[in-house]
Amino acid sequence: MNGPAWLAAGAACCAAALLVPTGSATLRAPRAAAPARGAESDWLRRWRVLWMVLAAAAAAAFLGGPAGAAAAPVAAAVTWLVIERSEPAQLRSEREQARRDLPHVVGLLADALRAGQPPVEALGVVAGALPGPAAVRLAEVVPRLRLGVDPVQVWADLAADPALGPLGRALARAHRTGSPVVPAIERLATELARSDRAEVEDRARAVGVKAAVPLGLCLLPAFVLIGIVPVVAGLLTTLGI
Length: 241
Prior knowledge:
It is built from 12 helices and no strands. By secondary structure, the protein is mainly α. Helix 4 runs antiparallel to helix 5.
């Protein structure tokens, strides 16, 4: 393989990293400076110019000639667009952490509601008592409700959150139907706790399956050398070969 072909292959491999799914970027970010720092520390954005150059080089090397020259800037522009529309790694991590914290948030909210707290005050208690991105995003809801924003709009915005959506939908359903909030939140807490336990069990089983492969690769050579090779050697010696 000649030099340009190697260059094209390397550029294509590096540019292929852009095809990794990045998820939705609709999660509301905290109003602190963390998202900006996350965007700067995200490897995809930090090396954005490099990915553009690699994509352009791959297009030019593969197509060659005038077609490659015309495709190179298009590939660079498409690469820039894909990176701009992708979700920063920090926001993706915060979304996953908020989703994992949701069962604890809903459980504490159910306890606060059972203690007689109004929904707005109960949300404020939960947001102030728990750390993490789920509580941070929930804290943004409380001032809006206290300022008199329509609860339907607030719950709709919360329901659109990728991590806190189940809580928003439960509150919106209770507000729309006029049913008591406490039973709805208690049911949601039970469902989330059951789902969280099932997810933990699935991860534990997956660890055992994933550990079996390297363990087998480590034990197989020893089994062959200790168990099979002596038997084969003994049979060959017996047969006089």
